[in-house]
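Quick one:
INPUT:
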Protein backbone atom coordinates (compact mmCIF):
# COMPACT_ATOMS: atom_id res chain seq x y z
CA UNK A 1 0.00 0.00 0.00
CA UNK A 2 1.26 3.42 -0.92
CA UNK A 3 -0.13 6.78 -1.91
CA UNK A 4 -2.67 6.15 -4.62
CA UNK A 5 -3.74 9.00 -6.91
CA UNK A 6 -6.30 6.89 -8.68
CA UNK A 7 -8.43 6.87 -5.51
CA UNK A 8 -9.04 10.60 -5.57
CA UNK A 9 -9.92 10.37 -9.23
CA UNK A 10 -12.38 7.56 -8.49
CA UNK A 11 -14.11 9.70 -5.85
CA UNK A 12 -15.43 12.09 -8.50
CA UNK A 13 -14.75 10.13 -11.70
CA UNK A 14 -17.98 10.97 -13.50
CA UNK A 15 -17.61 14.70 -12.84
CA UNK A 16 -14.01 14.70 -14.06
CA UNK A 17 -14.89 12.72 -17.17
CA UNK A 18 -17.83 14.93 -18.06
CA UNK A 19 -15.69 18.05 -17.66
CA UNK A 20 -12.84 16.61 -19.73
CA UNK A 21 -15.22 15.77 -22.57
CA UNK A 22 -16.87 19.20 -22.39
CA UNK A 23 -13.49 20.90 -22.76
CA UNK A 24 -12.29 18.60 -25.53
CA UNK A 25 -15.46 19.27 -27.50
CA UNK A 26 -15.22 23.05 -27.14
CA UNK A 27 -12.21 23.39 -29.42
CA UNK A 28 -10.35 25.97 -27.25
CA UNK A 29 -7.49 24.53 -25.23
CA UNK A 30 -5.24 27.14 -23.62
CA UNK A 31 -6.24 30.23 -21.56
CA UNK A 32 -9.97 30.41 -22.07
CA UNK A 33 -13.28 30.38 -20.20
CA UNK A 34 -12.34 27.49 -17.93
CA UNK A 35 -9.12 29.24 -16.89
CA UNK A 36 -10.84 32.51 -16.06
CA UNK A 37 -13.66 30.74 -14.22
CA UNK A 38 -11.11 28.76 -12.23
CA UNK A 39 -9.13 31.91 -11.45
CA UNK A 40 -12.25 33.58 -10.05
CA UNK A 41 -13.33 30.55 -8.05
CA UNK A 42 -9.85 29.92 -6.65
CA UNK A 43 -9.36 33.57 -5.63
CA UNK A 44 -12.78 33.46 -3.92
CA UNK A 45 -11.91 30.30 -2.06
CA UNK A 46 -8.56 31.60 -0.87
CA UNK A 47 -9.94 35.07 -0.14
CA UNK A 48 -7.85 37.27 -2.44
CA UNK A 49 -8.98 39.62 -5.18
CA UNK A 50 -6.95 38.01 -7.97
CA UNK A 51 -5.66 34.65 -9.10
CA UNK A 52 -3.54 34.08 -12.20
CA UNK A 53 -3.22 30.54 -13.55
CA UNK A 54 0.27 29.44 -14.57
CA UNK A 55 2.08 26.39 -15.89
CA UNK A 56 3.49 25.09 -12.57
CA UNK A 57 4.28 25.88 -8.97
CA UNK A 58 7.91 26.60 -9.81
CA UNK A 59 6.73 29.12 -12.39
CA UNK A 60 4.56 30.75 -9.72
CA UNK A 61 7.66 31.15 -7.53
CA UNK A 62 10.22 32.37 -10.03
CA UNK A 63 7.82 34.69 -11.82
CA UNK A 64 6.77 36.15 -8.46
CA UNK A 65 10.36 36.97 -7.57
CA UNK A 66 11.02 38.28 -11.08
CA UNK A 67 8.00 40.60 -11.02
CA UNK A 68 8.76 41.74 -7.48
CA UNK A 69 12.14 42.82 -8.77
CA UNK A 70 14.43 40.23 -7.15
CA UNK A 71 17.72 40.02 -9.02
CA UNK A 72 21.46 39.63 -8.56
CA UNK A 73 22.66 40.96 -5.19
CA UNK A 74 19.25 40.57 -3.57
CA UNK A 75 18.78 38.21 -0.66
CA UNK A 76 15.67 36.18 0.06
CA UNK A 77 15.21 34.48 3.41
CA UNK A 78 13.94 30.90 3.22
CA UNK A 79 13.75 27.87 5.50
CA UNK A 80 16.73 25.52 5.38
CA UNK A 81 14.11 22.76 5.37
CA UNK A 82 12.26 23.39 2.13
CA UNK A 83 11.68 21.84 -1.26
CA UNK A 84 14.29 22.44 -3.94
CA UNK A 85 11.81 24.43 -6.07
CA UNK A 86 11.63 27.09 -3.33
CA UNK A 87 15.34 27.75 -3.74
CA UNK A 88 15.28 27.55 -7.53
CA UNK A 89 12.53 30.17 -7.63
CA UNK A 90 15.03 32.55 -6.04
CA UNK A 91 18.23 31.57 -7.86
CA UNK A 92 16.58 31.50 -11.31
CA UNK A 93 16.44 35.29 -10.96
CA UNK A 94 20.02 35.58 -9.75
CA UNK A 95 18.86 36.16 -6.17
CA UNK A 96 20.68 34.70 -3.17
CA UNK A 97 18.84 32.36 -0.82
CA UNK A 98 19.65 33.03 2.83
CA UNK A 99 18.69 30.00 4.86
CA UNK A 100 17.19 30.08 8.32
CA UNK A 101 16.96 26.98 10.52
CA UNK A 102 13.68 25.07 10.83
CA UNK A 103 12.02 24.16 14.11
CA UNK A 104 10.16 21.16 15.55
CA UNK A 105 7.26 21.85 13.18
CA UNK A 106 9.68 21.48 10.25
CA UNK A 107 8.92 25.02 9.06
CA UNK A 108 11.09 28.12 9.32
CA UNK A 109 11.98 29.08 12.91
CA UNK A 110 10.62 32.63 12.83
CA UNK A 111 12.53 33.57 15.97
CA UNK A 112 15.76 33.19 13.95
CA UNK A 113 14.73 35.30 10.95
CA UNK A 114 15.70 38.71 12.29
CA UNK A 115 19.33 37.66 12.78
CA UNK A 116 19.48 36.78 9.06
CA UNK A 117 18.29 40.19 7.81
CA UNK A 118 21.00 42.28 6.09
CA UNK A 119 20.87 45.52 4.07
CA UNK A 120 20.53 43.30 0.95
CA UNK A 121 17.48 41.39 2.21
CA UNK A 122 14.51 42.03 -0.06
CA UNK A 123 12.00 39.32 0.76
CA UNK A 124 10.99 36.38 2.93
CA UNK A 125 9.72 33.20 1.30
CA UNK A 126 7.32 31.56 3.77
CA UNK A 127 6.99 27.89 2.82
CA UNK A 128 4.00 26.16 4.45
CA UNK A 129 5.62 22.75 4.34
CA UNK A 130 3.66 19.48 4.60
CA UNK A 131 0.38 21.41 4.81
CA UNK A 132 1.17 23.27 8.03
CA UNK A 133 1.28 27.05 8.13
CA UNK A 134 4.32 29.03 9.23
CA UNK A 135 4.10 31.56 12.06
CA UNK A 136 2.73 34.30 9.80
CA UNK A 137 2.24 36.77 12.65
CA UNK A 138 5.96 36.87 13.38
CA UNK A 139 6.95 36.74 9.70
CA UNK A 140 4.69 39.70 8.85
CA UNK A 141 5.93 41.63 11.88
CA UNK A 142 9.55 41.25 10.76
CA UNK A 143 8.67 42.02 7.13
CA UNK A 144 6.99 45.26 8.17
CA UNK A 145 9.80 46.26 10.48
CA UNK A 146 12.45 45.90 7.75
CA UNK A 147 10.31 46.76 4.72
CA UNK A 148 10.56 43.28 3.17
CA UNK A 149 8.27 41.63 0.67
CA UNK A 150 6.65 38.34 1.61
CA UNK A 151 5.96 35.51 -0.82
CA UNK A 152 4.07 32.52 0.50
CA UNK A 153 4.71 29.09 -0.98
CA UNK A 154 1.35 27.37 -0.51
CA UNK A 155 2.11 24.47 -2.86
CA UNK A 156 1.43 22.03 0.00
CA UNK A 157 -1.18 24.03 1.89
CA UNK A 158 -4.25 24.73 -0.27
CA UNK A 159 -6.96 26.11 1.98
CA UNK A 160 -4.93 25.97 5.18
CA UNK A 161 -5.08 28.65 7.87
CA UNK A 162 -2.94 30.59 10.30
CA UNK A 163 -5.04 31.88 13.20
CA UNK A 164 -8.18 31.46 11.12
CA UNK A 165 -6.90 33.35 8.05
CA UNK A 166 -6.17 31.46 4.85
CA UNK A 167 -2.52 31.09 3.86
CA UNK A 168 -1.66 32.87 0.64
CA UNK A 169 -3.46 36.01 1.84
CA UNK A 170 -0.75 37.28 4.19
CA UNK A 171 2.08 38.15 1.80
CA UNK A 172 2.32 40.15 -1.42
CA UNK A 173 1.86 36.96 -3.43
CA UNK A 174 0.75 33.41 -2.64
CA UNK A 175 2.16 30.69 -4.90
CA UNK A 176 0.37 27.42 -5.61
CA UNK A 177 1.22 24.19 -7.40
CA UNK A 178 -1.51 21.91 -8.74
CA UNK A 179 0.87 19.05 -9.49
CA UNK A 180 -1.20 15.84 -9.27
CA UNK A 181 0.05 14.85 -5.79
CA UNK A 182 -0.77 18.23 -4.25
CA UNK A 183 -3.83 18.80 -2.07
CA UNK A 184 -5.63 20.46 -4.96
CA UNK A 185 -4.12 18.44 -7.79
CA UNK A 186 -4.66 18.65 -11.53
CA UNK A 187 -4.02 15.82 -13.99
CA UNK A 188 -0.72 17.20 -15.18
CA UNK A 189 1.36 20.27 -14.38
CA UNK A 190 -0.36 23.48 -13.31
CA UNK A 191 0.12 26.35 -10.88
CA UNK A 192 -1.19 29.78 -9.92
CA UNK A 193 -0.52 32.88 -7.89
CA UNK A 194 -2.97 34.81 -5.77
CA UNK A 195 -2.65 38.46 -4.77
CA UNK A 196 -4.69 41.52 -3.81
CA UNK A 197 -2.45 43.79 -5.88
CA UNK A 198 -4.23 44.63 -9.12
CA UNK A 199 -1.24 45.93 -11.04
CA UNK A 200 0.87 42.95 -10.00
CA UNK A 201 -1.89 40.55 -11.10
CA UNK A 202 -1.98 42.32 -14.46
CA UNK A 203 1.79 41.90 -14.84
CA UNK A 204 1.49 38.16 -14.17
CA UNK A 205 -1.19 37.87 -16.87
CA UNK A 206 0.99 39.61 -19.41
CA UNK A 207 4.22 37.89 -18.39
CA UNK A 208 2.80 34.34 -18.59
CA UNK A 209 1.88 34.83 -22.23
CA UNK A 210 5.14 36.10 -23.79
CA UNK A 211 4.62 39.55 -22.34
CA UNK A 212 1.67 40.10 -24.60
CA UNK A 213 -1.70 41.55 -23.71
CA UNK A 214 -2.83 41.87 -27.28
CA UNK A 215 -1.83 39.09 -29.65
CA UNK A 216 1.55 39.79 -31.31
CA UNK A 217 2.06 43.07 -29.41
CA UNK A 218 4.60 42.47 -26.67
CA UNK A 219 5.04 45.01 -23.89
CA UNK A 220 7.67 43.05 -21.93
CA UNK A 221 9.94 40.05 -22.21
CA UNK A 222 7.80 37.31 -20.75
CA UNK A 223 7.62 33.55 -20.83
CA UNK A 224 5.23 30.77 -21.72
CA UNK A 225 3.55 29.67 -18.52
CA UNK A 226 -0.06 29.27 -19.52
CA UNK A 227 -2.70 27.13 -17.88
CA UNK A 228 -4.50 24.58 -20.06
CA UNK A 229 -8.27 24.69 -20.34
CA UNK A 230 -8.55 20.99 -19.56
CA UNK A 231 -6.49 21.34 -16.36
CA UNK A 232 -8.45 24.42 -15.30
CA UNK A 233 -11.74 22.61 -15.93
CA UNK A 234 -10.63 19.57 -13.94
CA UNK A 235 -9.32 21.86 -11.19
CA UNK A 236 -12.76 23.49 -10.96
CA UNK A 237 -14.24 20.08 -10.23
CA UNK A 238 -11.53 19.41 -7.68
CA UNK A 239 -11.94 22.83 -6.08
CA UNK A 240 -15.65 22.26 -5.56
CA UNK A 241 -14.73 19.34 -3.27
CA UNK A 242 -11.73 20.84 -1.48
CA UNK A 243 -13.45 21.37 1.88
CA UNK A 244 -14.40 17.69 2.12
CA UNK A 245 -11.01 16.56 0.76
CA UNK A 246 -9.13 18.64 3.34
CA UNK A 247 -11.48 17.45 6.11
CA UNK A 248 -10.82 13.84 5.11
CA UNK A 249 -7.05 14.36 5.34
CA UNK A 250 -7.48 16.00 8.74
CA UNK A 251 -9.52 13.01 9.89
CA UNK A 252 -6.90 10.56 8.64
CA UNK A 253 -4.12 12.55 10.32
CA UNK A 254 -5.86 12.64 13.69
CA UNK A 255 -6.47 8.87 13.50
CA UNK A 256 -2.74 8.37 12.92
CA UNK A 257 -1.87 10.69 15.80
CA UNK A 258 -4.29 8.99 18.19
CA UNK A 259 -3.44 5.41 17.31
CA UNK A 260 0.29 5.33 16.69
CA UNK A 261 1.65 4.35 20.08
CA UNK A 262 5.14 3.03 19.35
CA UNK A 263 7.70 4.92 21.48
CA UNK A 264 10.25 4.56 18.64
CA UNK A 265 8.04 6.71 16.43
CA UNK A 266 7.38 10.41 16.97
CA UNK A 267 4.16 11.71 15.45
CA UNK A 268 4.05 15.27 14.04
CA UNK A 269 2.85 18.22 16.10
CA UNK A 270 1.16 21.41 14.98
CA UNK A 271 2.26 24.88 16.05
CA UNK A 272 -0.23 26.72 18.31
CA UNK A 273 -2.20 29.04 16.00
CA UNK A 274 -1.52 26.92 12.94
CA UNK A 275 -3.76 24.45 11.14
CA UNK A 276 -2.57 21.74 8.83
CA UNK A 277 -4.21 20.28 5.74
CA UNK A 278 -1.73 17.39 6.04
CA UNK A 279 -0.21 17.36 2.60
CA UNK A 280 2.09 14.80 4.20
CA UNK A 281 1.87 13.02 7.52
CA UNK A 282 5.52 13.07 8.54
CA UNK A 283 6.71 10.93 11.43
CA UNK A 284 10.23 10.83 12.84
CA UNK A 285 12.16 7.73 13.73
CA UNK A 286 15.82 7.43 14.69
CA UNK A 287 15.91 3.90 13.18
CA UNK A 288 14.37 5.06 9.93
CA UNK A 289 16.08 2.67 7.54
CA UNK A 290 14.98 -0.40 9.48
CA UNK A 291 11.49 1.05 9.76
CA UNK A 292 11.32 1.54 5.98
CA UNK A 293 12.45 -2.03 5.47
CA UNK A 294 9.91 -3.35 7.98
CA UNK A 295 7.13 -1.39 6.28
CA UNK A 296 8.26 -2.67 2.87
CA UNK A 297 8.18 -6.26 4.12
CA UNK A 298 4.57 -5.63 5.01
CA UNK A 299 3.78 -4.14 1.62
CA UNK A 300 3.62 -0.54 2.86
CA UNK A 301 5.33 2.17 0.82
CA UNK A 302 6.67 5.29 2.53
CA UNK A 303 8.59 8.29 1.22
CA UNK A 304 11.32 10.54 2.63
CA UNK A 305 10.48 14.25 2.28
CA UNK A 306 13.31 15.16 1.88
CA UNK A 307 16.49 13.12 2.16
CA UNK A 308 18.81 16.06 1.41
CA UNK A 309 18.19 19.67 2.46
CA UNK A 310 18.36 21.90 -0.64
CA UNK A 311 21.50 23.74 0.48
CA UNK A 312 23.36 20.39 0.65
CA UNK A 313 22.15 19.14 -2.73
CA UNK A 314 24.67 18.78 -5.53
CA UNK A 315 22.79 21.44 -7.47
CA UNK A 316 23.62 24.03 -4.81
CA UNK A 317 27.26 23.09 -4.17
CA UNK A 318 27.88 26.56 -5.67
CA UNK A 319 26.47 28.13 -2.49
CA UNK A 320 29.31 26.51 -0.47
CA UNK A 321 27.18 26.01 2.63
CA UNK A 322 28.88 23.28 4.64
CA UNK A 323 27.23 20.27 6.23
CA UNK A 324 26.44 21.05 9.85
CA UNK A 325 25.20 24.57 9.09
CA UNK A 326 21.60 23.77 10.11
CA UNK A 327 21.78 20.86 12.54
CA UNK A 328 18.05 20.66 13.24
CA UNK A 329 17.22 20.46 9.52
CA UNK A 330 19.93 17.88 8.91
CA UNK A 331 18.73 15.72 11.79
CA UNK A 332 15.19 15.92 10.41
CA UNK A 333 16.46 14.84 6.97
CA UNK A 334 17.86 11.70 8.65
CA UNK A 335 14.68 10.89 10.60
CA UNK A 336 11.58 12.01 8.69
CA UNK A 337 9.27 9.58 6.93
CA UNK A 338 5.95 10.29 5.22
CA UNK A 339 3.30 7.64 5.79
CA UNK A 340 0.76 6.63 3.16
CA UNK A 341 -2.11 9.13 3.35
CA UNK A 342 -4.39 9.96 0.48
CA UNK A 343 -7.96 10.91 -0.21
CA UNK A 344 -9.95 7.73 -0.53
CA UNK A 345 -7.76 5.80 1.93
CA UNK A 346 -10.02 3.43 3.91
CA UNK A 347 -9.92 3.03 7.68
CA UNK A 348 -8.99 -0.63 7.24
CA UNK A 349 -6.01 0.35 5.11
CA UNK A 350 -4.96 2.93 7.64
CA UNK A 351 -5.44 0.55 10.57
CA UNK A 352 -3.13 -1.93 8.86
CA UNK A 353 -0.43 0.75 8.59
CA UNK A 354 -0.98 1.70 12.24
CA UNK A 355 -0.79 -1.93 13.47
CA UNK A 356 2.37 -2.47 11.48
CA UNK A 357 3.97 0.70 12.88
CA UNK A 358 3.04 -0.32 16.41
CA UNK A 359 4.62 -3.77 15.83
CA UNK A 360 7.97 -2.26 14.84
CA UNK A 361 10.67 -3.17 17.36
CA UNK A 362 13.66 -1.35 15.88
C1 LIG B 1 5.50 21.06 -5.50
C2 LIG B 1 6.13 22.22 -4.87
C3 LIG B 1 6.65 23.28 -5.62
C4 LIG B 1 6.78 23.26 -7.10
O1 LIG B 1 5.60 22.99 -7.77
P1 LIG B 1 5.63 22.34 -9.25
O2 LIG B 1 4.23 22.47 -9.70
O3 LIG B 1 6.11 20.95 -9.09
O4 LIG B 1 6.57 23.16 -10.07
C5 LIG B 1 7.15 24.38 -4.94
N1 LIG B 1 7.17 24.43 -3.60
C6 LIG B 1 6.69 23.41 -2.84
C7 LIG B 1 6.72 23.55 -1.36
C8 LIG B 1 6.18 22.28 -3.45
O5 LIG B 1 5.74 21.27 -2.70
Amino acid sequence: MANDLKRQYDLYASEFEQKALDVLRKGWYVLGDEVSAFEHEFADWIGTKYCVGLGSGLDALWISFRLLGIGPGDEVIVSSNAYIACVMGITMNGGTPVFVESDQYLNIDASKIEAAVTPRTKAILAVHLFGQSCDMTEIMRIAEKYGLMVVEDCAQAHGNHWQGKTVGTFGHVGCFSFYPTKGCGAFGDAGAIVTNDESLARKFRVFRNYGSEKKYYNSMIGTNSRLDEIQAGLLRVRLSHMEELNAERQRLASRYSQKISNPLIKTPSVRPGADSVWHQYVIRCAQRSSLIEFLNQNGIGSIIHYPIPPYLSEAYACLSIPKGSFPYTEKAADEVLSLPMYNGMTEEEQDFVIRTLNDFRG
